[in-house]
């Protein structure tokens, strides 16, 4: 025990020394700039192999309940699965073999299309080279009033080299996403008197107004090595990833993310260090205006020590972040303390954490949050100096888990999305453009929730989750677009050995948006009901059906931007 305390004391002393040294050399005039991300759904296509997960109840991670939006707000989600929560995962009836390759094709109403292909060009015991091609889109053009287009395309190569003590990986890819701005501002006949600008002036492009048909290009390359736990009981990983992000009008962004992780077992405990260095580089891609965004870097240092005992575990550490941004927190430390204890063996657990966060909000990431952002200026980064959360996990019956949690955090410079405005010179009144800006506020967030998971004999599973979110800002400000109440329900039922049916619902209420005069207006409650069906003809061939937004609800994800109504997809999956 003395040896453990000595190592812990030495580790924390070195960490605090590094913080003190850096603080002395840093400019004492600091400008704080931080945000917390509340993420909208981003359509993705996952590998077919990921539908092979066995339904089981597992211990929930220590994680506060975050505000979230419906995962069915924009595009179809062809994967046959409900949204995953931390404590449950659902299984497909038969195993589709990913060791070779697969092809998935689908088509639905509103000209929804899906193509998903993976094949190992090389597949040897010690190395493997895969090619991946993905397409997911919808091309709805009912008439001039109802036009919605959005498609996401990706191509990539993945190489893995396996060694006795680790794995080398090299990945590269290119993605192209295209969509139109199908908000009220383009539905001219239906919203003839709308406050949304209904004409595209070329002089606005690159400033406050984006073209009706927009596109985003993303490319990436990564290289790294992951070790296995060896005889000396230590492991490590080293990786570097480059991401490129570009649009026809706006800033182009390049990021280089380098990570080093190391941990070592000492008796039954662990000591470790997590290092990260993120470089962000920008240049203008705007032919009309010269845009400027400073390049900068963020270095993160996270030493920690973990005590692991039979009935409890505790992690003690500190996260320190150093930024060279022109505006923001040059020094952003947060605590890294979390733990869990068994109150009643295998039945009742208490968990909690005192931590925080510094998140770099790259343009690449922010476009997955809200694709209608004005890209002429980068969103400020996130700094949450204090985040405390905890709860109880009750496993009173076999394969039945109840998770009760509560959390509170302070956020400096929290951002909320608001419609950008411009004055129409013809009628001399302000109107909304088709882009969003940011309203920055200091905020406190209190959230509480309950999550219930149950699995019966791998034939029936359900997930129920409820969330309450209370935002507090000075001067009675409003948390634009953030839901106050959320509710999830999902169930997965095996009808036969080969047939499974899936139901998922999501509701969110209490959202408000900023009106054209700066006042507050309520948004319609999010109400999504989605149904899925899967039939495995054999281990090689399967049929799936996805029916989303069964109520044909026309709520708005963002003010002025309605979701796609009822949509369905019928498809086949081949494993070869």
Cα shape: globular
What's the CATH topology label?
Maltoporin, Chain A
Q: Tally of extended strands? A: 28
Unreliable residue runs: 1-98, 185-193, 199-206
Q: How does this structure look, described?
A:
This protein is mostly beta strands and 576 residues long. The chain has a single domain, classed as Beta Barrel (Maltoporin, Chain A). Helices cover 5% and strands 57% of the residues. The chain has a 22-stranded antiparallel beta barrel. A two-stranded antiparallel sheet has the order 1-2. It is globular, with a radius of gyration of 25 Å. It starts with a helix and ends with a strand.
Give me the secondary-structure topology.
Elements: H1 2-25, E1 52-57, E2 88-91, E3 102-108, E4 112-123, E5 127-141, E6 147-163, E7 166-180, E8 213-227, E9 234-246, E10 251-266, E11 269-284, E12 296-308, E13 312-323, E14 331-344, E15 348-359, H2 363-369, E16 382-397, E17 400-424, E18 429-456, E19 460-472, E20 485-494, E21 499-509, E22 512-514, E23 520-522, E24 526-536, E25 541-548, E26 556-558, E27 561-562, E28 567-575
Antiparallel strand pairs: 1-2, 3-4, 3-28, 4-5, 5-6, 6-7, 7-8, 8-9, 9-10, 10-11, 11-12, 12-13, 13-14, 14-15, 15-16, 16-17, 17-18, 18-19, 19-20, 20-21, 21-24, 22-23, 24-25, 25-28, 26-27
In short:
This protein is mainly β and 576 residues long.
List keywords for this structure.
576 residues, mainly beta, Maltoporin, Chain A, 22-stranded antiparallel β-barrel, two-stranded antiparallel sheet, 2 helices, 28 strands, 57% strand, disordered N terminus
């Amino acid at each position: 025990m003395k040896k453990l305390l000595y190592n812990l004391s030495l580790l924390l002393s070195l960490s605090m020394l590094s913080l003190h040294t850096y603080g002395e050399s840093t400019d004492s005039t600091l400008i704080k700039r931080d945000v917390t991300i509340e993420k909208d759904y981003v359509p993705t296509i996952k590998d077919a192999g990921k539908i092979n997960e066995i339904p089981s109840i597992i211990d929930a991670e220590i994680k506060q309940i975050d505000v979230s939006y419906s995962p069915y707000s924009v595009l179809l989600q062809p994967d046959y699965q409900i949204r995953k929560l931390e404590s449950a995962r659902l299984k497909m009836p038969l195993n589709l073999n990913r060791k070779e390759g697969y092809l998935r094709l689908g088509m639905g109403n509103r000209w929804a299309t899906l193509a998903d292909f993976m094949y190992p060009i090389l597949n040897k015991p010690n190395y493997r080279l895969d090619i991946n091609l993905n397409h997911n889109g919808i091309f709805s053009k009912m008439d001039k009033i109802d036009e919605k287009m959005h498609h996401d395309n990706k191509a990539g190569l993945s190489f893995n080299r396996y060694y006795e003590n680790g794995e080398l990986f090299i990945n590269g890819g290119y993605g192209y996403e295209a969509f139109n701005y199908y908000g009220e501002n383009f539905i001219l006949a239906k919203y003839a008197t709308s406050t949304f600008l209904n004409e595209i002036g070329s002089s606005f492009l690159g400033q406050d107004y984006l073209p009706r048909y927009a596109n985003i290009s993303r490319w990436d390359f990564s290289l790294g090595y992951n070790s296995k736990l060896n005889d000396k009981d230590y492991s490590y990983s080293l990786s570097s990833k480059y991401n490129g992000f570009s649009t026809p009008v706006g800033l182009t962004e390049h990021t280089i993310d380098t990570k080093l992780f190391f941990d070592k077992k000492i008796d039954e405990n662990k000591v470790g260090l997590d290092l990260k260095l993120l470089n962000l580089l920008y240049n203008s891609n705007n032919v009309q205006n010269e845009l400027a965004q400073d390049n900068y870097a963020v270095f993160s240092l996270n030493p920690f020590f973990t005590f692991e005992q039979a009935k409890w575990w505790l992690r003690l550490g500190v996260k320190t972040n150093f930024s060279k941004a022109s505006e923001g927190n040059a020094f952003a430390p947060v605590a890294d303390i979390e733990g869990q204890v068994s109150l009643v063996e295998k039945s009742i657990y208490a968990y909690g954490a005192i931590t925080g966060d510094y998140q770099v909000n790259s343009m690449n990431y922010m476009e997955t949050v809200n694709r209608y952002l004005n890209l002429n200026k980068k969103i400020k980064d996130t700094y949450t100096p204090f985040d405390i959360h905890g709860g109880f996990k009750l496993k009173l019956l076999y394969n039945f888990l109840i998770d009760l949690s509560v959390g509170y955090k302070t956020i400096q410079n929290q951002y909320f999305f608001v419609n950008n405005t411009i004055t129409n010179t013809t009628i001399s009144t302000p109107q909304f453009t088709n882009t969003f800006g940011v309203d920055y506020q200091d905020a406190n967030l209190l959230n509480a929730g309950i999550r219930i998971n149950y699995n019966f004999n791998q034939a029936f599973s359900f997930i129920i989750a409820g969330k309450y979110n209370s935002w507090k800002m000075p001067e009675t400000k409003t948390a634009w677009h953030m839901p106050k109440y959320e509710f999830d329900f999902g169930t997965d039922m095996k009808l036969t050995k080969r047939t499974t049916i899936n139901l998922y619902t999501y509701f969110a209420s209490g959202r408000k948006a900023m009106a054209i005069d700066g006042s507050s207006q309520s948004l319609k409650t999010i109400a999504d009901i989605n149904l899925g069906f899967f039939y495995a003809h054999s281990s090689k061939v399967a049929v799936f059906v996805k029916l989303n937004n069964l109520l044909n609800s026309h709520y708005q994800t963002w003010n002025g931007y309605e979701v796609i109504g009822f949509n369905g997809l019928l498809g086949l999956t081949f494993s070869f």
